[in-house]
Every structure is written in C-alpha cells, then in structure tokens.
C-alpha cells in the first residue's frame, strides 16, 4: 500500500534563510535588508541609502546559496516533526534552486539530519508537485511553503493536495498575510505536525476546495 506524502519547501519552512541572508548582506556588503517589510527585494545600500535594483539582488542571492548555506539554521521543531511524519508518510523536499545547487542542498540538509529525496525546481511548484504525487502514487498529500504564489500554483495543477502556508521566520511572518489558496496558515512545527497527521488520517484523495 502506498503511503501518504509530505512535499515540503526548505527555506523558511525547514531552515531559516532570510535572517542569515540579511546578516551576511549587512556584514559583507553594507546592505540593509528590511525583513519586517515582508518584501524580498526591500534592500538598500547603507552608504548611499539607494534601493538595490533586482539585477544586483539576484547575484547576491546566488552567492549566498553557493558559498554561505552553512549559515542557515534549523527551524525549531522541524526535525522532530519530520521524524513523526516520516513514521506514517513519505517526505520529499521541493526547493526552488537551480539544478546545480542540488548537491549543496542535499549535503546541507544531511548536515542537519534531514535525509529525504530533494527535488530542485524553478518557477511555480504546481507542476512538480503534480509530477511527484503521480510518480510516488500517493493516495494523499500535503504541501508546505512560505510563498503564496506556490500555493496558487499547486491549487491550479494539483487540487487534490492539502496546502499548508508556513512562514517560519517571525520577523517576516507578521508582514505576510495568509495565502488565499492555502487551506491553513500555521507558522510553528508542533502545531503544523498535528495538522498534517490529522489530514493523513482523515482524508481521501480528492479535490480540496
Ligand atoms: Mg521558502
């Protein structure tokens, strides 16, 4: 019998990212990243006060993931929750990184004790979620992500999947409204774990309005 499936994002779900990225920008680039704004591009040059253009931000993000992933820390309770969920379900990490970063992410998560299949993706997560569910033959599935755009994508492409919106960084969470296309918004793992296990016990695989 196939087991249920948890498909989880990594950054700001399993691992803290933005706070460590902000620290690195501050220390090494004199850049202020206003996390509390809830905007991922709210960055300014401390020396001039000028807003950083997107074509400067993306290379900085690439450099962070290439050379500074070791700065990232586990979200409290994530490891314990994955252990409980792993007793009854399969787990796949679906992370939006270039394919060249796959090995870095595998090594990074293994260093935190997380050893599950890791899938890299670019763009909306609906199509890869649909593909993973079909490949695994899962009878029920839960998807977790901090970005509303991915919940909309999964709702469109894989409507039978339960969708949990989690923003694990408290400095960011206060500024981020609940994703309209998610079934629930829970920002801490102990509560999220109960919600996920409940969904696996009580549902049939069908469209979730
Ligand atoms: Mg994320």
Structure description:
The two termini are 26 Å apart. Strand 6, helix 4 and strand 7 (117-120) form a beta-alpha-beta unit. The protein is built from eight helices and ten strands. The chain has two domains: 5-16 and 73-202, HAD superfamily/HAD-like (Rossmann fold, 3-Layer(aba) Sandwich), CATH 3.40.50; 18-71, no CATH class. It is globular. With 209 residues, the protein is of the alpha/beta class. The mean pLDDT is 94. The longest helix is centred in the first third of the chain and has 14 residues, at 54-67. The structure holds magnesium ion.
Element layout with pairings:
Blueprint: E1 5-8, E2 15-16, H1 18-29, E3 31-33, E4 43-45, H2 54-67, E5 73-74, H3 78-86, E6 90-95, H4 102-111, E7 117-120, H5 126-136, E8 141-145, H6 148-157, E9 162-165, H7 170-173, E10 184-185, H8 189-202
Parallel strand pairs: 1-6, 1-8, 6-7, 8-9, 9-10
Antiparallel strand pairs: 2-5, 3-4
Bound molecules: magnesium ion.
Magnesium ion binds next to loops.
């Amino acid at each position: 019998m196939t087991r249920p499936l948890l498909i989880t994002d990594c950054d700001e779900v399993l691992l803290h990212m933005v706070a460590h990225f902000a620290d690195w920008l501050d220390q090494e680039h004199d850049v202020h990243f206003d996390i509390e704004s809830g905007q991922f591009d709210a960055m300014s040059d401390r020396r001039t006060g000028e807003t950083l253009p997107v074509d400067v931000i993306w290379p900085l993000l690439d450099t962070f993931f290439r050379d500074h992933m070791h700065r990232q820390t586990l979200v409290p309770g994530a490891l314990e929750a994955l252990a409980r969920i792993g007793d009854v379900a399969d787990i796949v990490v679906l992370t939006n990184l270039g394919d060249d970063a796959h090995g870095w992410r595998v090594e990074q998560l293994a260093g935190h004790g997380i050893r599950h299949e890791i899938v890299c993706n670019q763009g909306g997560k609906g199509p890869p979620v649909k593909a993973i569910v079909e490949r695994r033959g899962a009878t029920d599935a839960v998807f977790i992500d901090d970005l509303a755009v991915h919940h909309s994508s999964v709702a469109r492409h894989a409507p039978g999947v339960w969708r949990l919106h989690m923003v694990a960084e408290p400095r960011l969470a206060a500024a981020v409204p609940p994703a309209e296309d998610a079934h629930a918004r829970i920002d801490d793992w102990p509560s999220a774990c109960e919600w996920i296990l409940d969904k696996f016990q009580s549902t049939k695989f069908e469209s979730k309005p």
